[in-house]
Write a structure and sequence with these properties.
Shape: elongated
GO molecular function: sodium:potassium:chloride symporter activity
CATH architecture of the largest domain: Up-down Bundle
Mean pLDDT: 77
Structural class: alpha/beta
Number of strands: 9
Distance between the termini: 84 Å
Membrane topology: Multi-pass membrane protein
CATH superfamily of the largest domain: Amino acid/polyamine transporter I
Helix content: 40-55%
Organism: Sinocyclocheilus grahami (Dianchi golden-line fish)
Strand order of the largest sheet: 3-2-1-4-5-9
Radius of gyration: 41 Å
CATH topology of the largest domain: Amino acid/polyamine transporter I
Largest sheet: 6 strands, mixed
GO cellular component, one term: apical plasma membrane
CATH class of the largest domain: Mainly Alpha
Keywords: Membrane, Transmembrane, Transmembrane helix
Length: 760
């Protein structure tokens, strides 16, 4: 039921070119350019103009390339930067650019108010400027509130007024002079005046090149005015490049013509007193300088520095030099915006765009910011970094396909390829873990534990083996979001297979890229191994055996309450998985990490506990290491180096004696899987073939010396023998880890040396 609003769409002339020219012209052209010409001379003034145009033209080509890179919506410069560099950089630069535009409006308003004050010969120099400026801003605000149509009509009126003033200026330069004009320094076009004004004549505290460049540069800004209304253009893709570059061209020609006409018609110093004419007064003193050749004696005011007229002494021009703070803010914020704009283009269709030219322009803007005002440049970058950190911390949930994403991809690809050509060394070893978590939110403790010692230093991949007979799984995107919310730096991948062994084998072969490939398999302890199907138990043990055959290190985490949180959730009648805080997310305080080192597996058993102590939650924990007599006697040399190396790890280490294992628990766990030869009718081999998980007397006799001669350990994982039944192997692990009320990690390396003392 709402009335339809007719949208106003502008073409490239009215929407881009005229709008940009109006923002480039203004107080800068009328009040500063003649004074800069007098200070720097015509040659250096042209250098300043062309240097500014180089900066703005390179920026314009980058803007043109971005505008042709895709569909342009409302949002102006912020839209272009944010959609190309992301919201992290788009928001800070957008805020600075908006603030710089507001300050530029204040600059033009103050210049207009001072001109009105001088023309009307008002009394109060300060308050009159404030009153006129406030009235001007209110009028402009009312025009803006009236809508884009009224604003466009006002722009046409302003443009006509500026064009009439320019015509009036150039016509005035060819009108014959009189005595009053000559007394203030205007003599018409003369070659000697032009030659005199070619070279610089720096005066005052602002009399050096880069300060003059800084004062002039706001005259070159305003090129993004057409971009700011890109959503209201009929064809932003074609209108922005054409209108912006033509606006730069016409305004540059106007600056060049104004500079050369000023330098050719007006002397630097004039008294404004008609009695200083040599034709009226007989001067007894010797007359020097350019004024004497023109029939005027300006020596007295030049020597006393009291000349009130001429290019270098115009009061309206001198007043504009008091805007130092406004100028500093504008040039730094504008240069910062231009610097970012040149780094935003990605896949441009604009043929005149060159990434190397844009890089040169960015570097030039960066250098000029510090050459103009170094402290203001530092403040600007500090503000940008603060806003960048804030937006990065808040992490807006948007994806605009930025060039930063493309840059990160290229960097990751390049580094991965470079890393492939580097030979492995023990000093650079990292436990790169493939973790069989299933859906990661189902086993949060397992995810948190591995993420604790791999975060920021190593690779972690959460693998989910989806059996074909299982229920539908969660989406990958949801599980990746869960990992990010839990602040776990891990990849996630899934694989559909008929069995756990098949899926794990395929993941171990296919996971990773180049050197970023897993070398350690981490999985949870099978808590229901006594109640599950025998085929499932055999599949679990075969997975461990296959990992050893694939030269992987193995780590099995056991917790007395189990790892799967779905059991507790289902028992509580909850239909969703809540956020569960595991023990690995809390500070451990001054506790101990006990390491039972039974066999020399390359050092992985010692490396993982050490990596835990590098984290803040575990840094107060004490490492307590115990080793068997076999390790102490048979590997005495390595053991001595290990003892020294452990003290390097932590100065709170101690060696513990091993306790004797309980045989009762071991015998109780294997009892249900014993094979009675009397019940088998003497055909033990046939029953073993049909039920490989059963334990015969022969199997028990073969394994007993290996078990009973070794004391219980909480770290070293036994290697499953090919002829060892799965139930016997699981009972072995159960006997090693049963009754421990803290997490137990059964770990074994692949005999690859991972400790630095092996290479010394």
């Amino acid at each position: 039921g709402r009335p339809k609003v007719k949208l106003v769409r502008f073409g490239w002339v009215l929407g881009v070119m005229i709008r940009a020219m109006l923002n480039i012209w203004g107080v800068i052209m009328y009040l500063r350019l003649p004074w800069i010409t007098s200070q720097a001379g015509l040659i250096l003034t042209y250098v300043i103009i062309f240097m500014s145009i180089v900066v703005t033209t390179i920026t314009a080509t980058s803007v043109s390339a971005i505008s042709t890179n895709g569909k342009i919506y409302s949002g102006g410069t912020y839209f272009m930067i944010s959609r190309s560099l992301g919201p992290e950089l788009g928001a800070p630069i957008g805020l600075l650019f908006a603030f710089a535009n507001a300050i530029a409006c204040a600059l033009h308003t103050v210049g207009f108010a001072e001109t009105v004050r001088d023309l009307l010969k008002m009394v109060d120099d300060v308050n009159d400027v404030r009153i006129v400026g406030a009235i001007t801003v209110v009028i402009l605000l009312c025009i803006t509130f009236a809508g884009m149509a009224w604003e466009a009509k006002a722009q046409i009126l302003f443009f006509i007024a500026i064009m009439l003033s320019l015509i009036n200026y150039f016509v005035g330069t060819v009108i014959p002079t009189n005595r009053e004009k000559e007394s203030v320094g205007f003599f018409g076009y003369r070659g000697d005046i032009f030659v005199e004004n070619l070279l610089p004549s720096f005066r005052g505290p602002n009399g050096y090149f880069f300060r003059l460049f800084a004062i002039f540069f706001p005259a070159a800004t305003g090129i993004l005015s057409g971009v700011n209304i890109c959503g209201d253009l009929k064809d932003p893709t074609g209108g922005i490049p054409k209108g912006t570059l033509l606006a730069i061209l016409w305004t540059t020609l106007s600056y060049l013509l104004i500079s050369v006409t000023c330098a050719a018609t007006v002397v630097r110093d004039a008294s404004g007193n008609v009695n200083d004419s040599l034709a009226l007064t007989n001067f007894t003193t010797h007359c020097t300088g350019l004024g004497c050749k023109l029939g005027w004696n300006f020596d007295r005011c030049e020597q006393n520095r009291t000349c009130s007229h001429g290019l270098a002494n115009n009061l309206r021009v001198s007043a504009s030099c008091n805007y130092t703070v406004i100028i500093i803010i504008i040039i730094n914020y504008m240069y910062c915006t231009y610097y970012r704009l040149r780094l935003t283009c990605w896949r441009p269709e604009y043929h005149f765009y060159s990434p190397w030219t844009s890089l040169f322009g960015s570097f030039l803007s960066f250098i000029l910011m510090f050459l103009f005002t170094w402290w203001a440049a530092l403040v600007t970058f500090f503000i940008v970094l603060f806003l960048l950190g804030y937006v990065t911390y808040t992490k807006p949930k948007v994806n605009w396909g930025t060039s930063y994403q493309a840059g990160f991809y290229n960097m990751a690809l390049s580094f991965s390829m470079s890393l492939s050509g580097v030979e492995d060394h023990v000093k650079n070893y990292r436990p790169q873990c493939l973790v069989l978590t299933g859906p990661p939110n189902v086993r949060p403790a397992l995810v948190d534990f591995v993420g604790t010692f791999t975060k920021n230093i190593s690779l972690m991949i959460c693998g989910n083996i989806i059996l074909k007979s299982s229920f539908p799984q969660h989406s990958s995107d949801m599980l990746v979001d869960w990992l990010n919310q839990r602040k776990v730096r891990s990849f996630y991948t899934s694989f559909t297979a008929d069995s756990l062994k098949e899926g794990t084998h395929n993941l171990m072969q296919a996971s990773g890229l180049g050197k970023l490939k897993p070398n350690t398999l981490v999985l949870g302890y099978k808590m229901n191994w006594q109640e599950c199907k025998p085929e499932s138990l055999q599949d679990y043990v075969n997975t461990i055996s296959d990992a050893f055959d694939s030269s992987y290190g193995i780590a099995i985490l056991r917790m007395m309450d189990g790892l799967d949180v779905t059991d507790n959730v289902h028992s509580a009648g909850v239909c969703f998985i809540p956020y569960v805080r595991s023990v690995f997310q809390t500070k451990q305080g001054r506790k101990s990490i006990d390491i039972y080192w039974i066999s020399d597996d390359g050092g992985l058993t010692l490396l993982v506990p050490y990596l835990l102590t590098r984290r803040n939650r575990w840094k107060k924990c004490k490492l307590r290491v115990s080793a068997t007599e076999k390790v102490r006697n048979g590997h005495k040399h390595a053991h001595e180096h290990a003892y020294k190396n452990i003290h390097v790890f932590s100065n709170r280490c101690a060696f513990l004696p091993l306790c004797c294992c309980s045989l009762q628990r071991y015998e109780e766990t294997i009892a249900p899987f014993r094979l009675s030869e009397e019940q088998a009718g003497g055909d033990v081999q046939e029953l073993k073939r049909l039920s490989p998980w059963k334990i015969s007397n022969k199997d028990l006799e073969a394994i007993q010396p290996k078990v009973f001669n070794v004391c219980v350990c909480f770290s070293s994982l036994p290697v499953p023998d090919v002829t060892c039944p799965s139930s016997l192997y699981m009972s072995w692990m159960d006997a090693l880890s049963y009754g421990i009320h803290c997490p137990v990690l059964l770990i074994r390396g692949n005999q690859e040396n991972v400790m630095t003392f092996y290479c010394q």
